[in-house]
Write a structure and sequence with these properties.
Elements: H1 7-32, H2 39-79, H3 94-150, H4 155-187, E1 195-198, H5 199-216, E2 220-225, E3 230-233, H6 235-251, E4 258-265, E5 269-276, H7 308-318, E6 321-328, E7 332-340
Parallel strand pairs: 2-4
Antiparallel strand pairs: 1-3, 4-5, 5-7, 6-7
Helix pairs in contact: 1-2, 3-4, 4-7, 5-6, 6-7
């Protein structure tokens, strides 16, 4: 029986059994030896056995009471704020098994509390970052509107500052849209609608999205890869990830620079590589470029909001892939996205 695993219960049963067996053994031996005993002595023997059993039970329950009182005191210490306290559960038995389960529950509660604390801290930082990011374009919009009101009769001024206002509104829209996408991925509410897609066609759509900007900035956007490579993915989310990496490359290159988007199928994975020959990423920034709202003190880009690369990373990981970056100052930057091929695992 599992009840007898408890050393103390097992010892109690042994004591009670001994107290019951001993009088019976003595009375049986006397009967075999034909020694007569008065009923008074027999009754006294059983009374002594009963007293012994009561004492054994009292001792056992007193020890159990002490164990429970100690456990209650430890629980009170936990409730008072010492979340490192644990119930003693080194011995065997059902009671100590219960203590072990309570300790496991405490560990889970501590983990949830820690995660909640981190989430609140992250939310606080995120709100502060969003407020900071929105402050700049909103301030610019106020200035532009003031200028427009003062020079409303100057058509050239109106056109110029209307265009600038539109840029700032685009920044706000991009910020909000990226935040919504990241929030959906964080919450796990995004269900990837995967289907077999041709990478050449997907990358061509990415190129169409940025080709006008590349021409305006006198930059080359070059695609390179087989038109027979197919990949099981959510096409819209994958183009979002690759597009954010391409946009990052356009943001950090100069006139005359080149951005290449290449893809290939390896024996066990699909690989998409985005390379540019721009100024490169400072070594101090490399460990942080996938952090939300991270802005390098070395970057000359004043328009970025620091959400494109973190969003790209989340999308790649949602496809069970990885994204890595390699960069050298004065030579350029390479982003490598690797996706395992499920049928070849």
């Amino acid at each position: 029986m599992r009840l007898l695993i408890d050393r103390k219960i097992k010892h109690l049963f042994q004591v009670i059994l001994a107290l019951l067996v001993c009088p019976m053994a003595v009375f049986t031996l006397l009967r075999v030896l034909h020694i007569k005993m008065d009923a008074v002595y027999i009754l006294a023997g059983w009374i002594c056995a009963g007293i012994g059993i009561l004492m054994a039970l009292y001792r056992y329950f007193r020890e159990q009471h002490a164990v429970m009182e100690k456990a209650i005191d430890q629980m009170h210490v936990y409730l008072d704020g010492n979340h490192e306290i644990r119930l003693d559960c080194e011995e065997e038995g059902e009671l100590y098994r219960l203590f072990h389960e309570i300790n496991s529950l405490v560990s889970i509660l501590n983990a949830h509390a820690e995660n909640e604390g981190r989430a609140k801290h992250f939310m606080k930082d995120t709100i502060a970052d969003i407020s900071h990011q929105l402050k700049t374009p909103l301030a610019a919009l106020n200035i532009y509107n003031g200028i427009l009101q003062e020079d409303s009769d100057q058509q050239e001024t109106v056109r110029e500052f209307t265009a600038l206002s539109e840029q700032e509104l685009d920044r706000i829209d991009t910020l909000v849209q990226n935040l919504l996408k990241i929030t959906k991925l964080d919450a796990g509410t995004v269900v990837l609608d995967k289907s077999m897609e041709n990478l050449f066609q997907l990358m061509t759509q990415v190129e169409r999205h940025f080709v006008f900007r590349a021409i305006q900035e006198n930059k080359k956007l070059i695609l390179g890869g087989s038109d027979t490579v197919n990949f099981l993915c959510d096409s819209s989310w994958l183009m979002e990830a690759v597009g954010n990496v391409v946009k990052n490359a356009l943001d950090h290159t100069q006139s005359g620079d080149t951005i290449q988007v290449q893809w290939k199928e390896l024996p066990s994975m699909i690989q998409i590589v985005v390379t540019d020959n721009g100024a490169g990423i400072h070594p101090e920034d490399l460990p942080h470029i996938f952090k939300r709202f991270y802005r390098s003190r070395f970057s000359k880009d004043t328009q970025g909001i620091g959400l494109g690369l973190p969003l790209a990373k989340m999308i790649v990981e949602a496809h069970s892939g990885t994204i890595e970056v390699d960069s050298e100052r004065g030579i350029g930057t390479t982003f490598v996205m690797n996706f395992l091929i499920p049928t070849k695992l």
